[in-house]
């Protein structure tokens, strides 16, 4: 009976093992990870970096992009072995085995030219305004816990930019390169401005389930080899980082 149960469990696991690592990322994080329309092909800076590291490590994989909430859920439920791209906050480090960073990006505040706020020095300076952010995103520990009037109804950064341009919120927070990508999509460069002081220079990581140190170390070793050899620099330059 025990032998039968063991064989049954083994046969159930084989399809997942045969396909290699199941790697998932955010489908709405252009220019870092995204898809064009109905084309399922993952694209973006982080996609190319992750693929390069997996090739260097000799790992077979299947890479797919999903809504961010589903990415986190898949990793939590064991439906994916690896996910990207997570902010390096204390909360995330407590939740996952983080490896990286793959890169860093400036997290900034963007507003329209109609708003009189020239810059900010303390988070208190933002209290008179409605600050928009993407539901489920972590930005920076002090900001995330600070009491502000927030609108977290946006499901992705593209929607967040649209809400700002429509006048539904006063200020939005996000990655500089990404926010400008969606502003250019709308040809709205002249309507917005980025406050000079960034919130934080945020490193971005890949994540494994807590305790999955073997996979984490295998990916980390390959990433370090490529970074030391400068073999990822061409990818960064091509995407304007």
From TrEMBL:
Keywords: Signal. It holds the Pfam family SBP_bac_3. The keyword Signal applies. Residues 22-241 form the Solute-binding protein family 3/N-terminal domain. SMART domains: PBPb. Residues 1-18 form the signal peptide. Coiled coil: none annotated. The keyword Signal applies. It comes from the Bacteria. InterPro entries: Solute-binding_3/MltF_N (IPR001638). PANTHER family: ABC TRANSPORTER SUBSTRATE-BINDING PROTEIN, MEMBRANE-BOUND LYTIC MUREIN TRANSGLYCOSYLASE F. This is Transporter substrate-binding domain-containing protein.
């Amino acid at each position: 009976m025990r032998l039968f149960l063991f064989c049954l469990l083994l046969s159930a696991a084989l399809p997942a093992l045969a396909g290699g690592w199941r790697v998932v990322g955010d489908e709405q994080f252009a220019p870092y990870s995204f898809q064009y329309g109905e084309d399922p092909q993952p694209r973006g800076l982080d996609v190319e970096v992750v693929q390069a590291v997996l090739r260097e490590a000799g790992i077979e994989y299947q890479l797919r992009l999903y809504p961010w909430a589903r990415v986190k859920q898949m990793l939590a439920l064991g439906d994916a072995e690896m996910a990207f791209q997570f902010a390096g906050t204390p909360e995330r480090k407590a939740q996952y085995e983080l490896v990286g960073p793959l890169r860093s990006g400036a997290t900034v505040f963007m507003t329209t030219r109609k708003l009189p706020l020239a810059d900010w020095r303390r988070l208190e300076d933002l209290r008179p305004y409605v600050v928009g952010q993407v539901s489920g995103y972590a930005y920076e520990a002090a900001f995330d816990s600070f009491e502000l009037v927030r609108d977290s109804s946006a499901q992705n950064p593209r929607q967040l930019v649209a809400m700002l341009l429509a006048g539904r919120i006063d200020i939005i927070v996000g990655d500089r390169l990404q926010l400008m990508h969606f502003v250019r999509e709308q040809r709205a460069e002249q309507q917005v401005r980025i406050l000079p002081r960034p919130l934080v220079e945020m490193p971005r990581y890949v994540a494994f389930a807590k305790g999955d140190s073997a996979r984490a170390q295998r990916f980390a070793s390959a990433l370090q080899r490529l970074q030391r050899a400068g073999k990822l620099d061409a990818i960064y330059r091509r995407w304007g980082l």
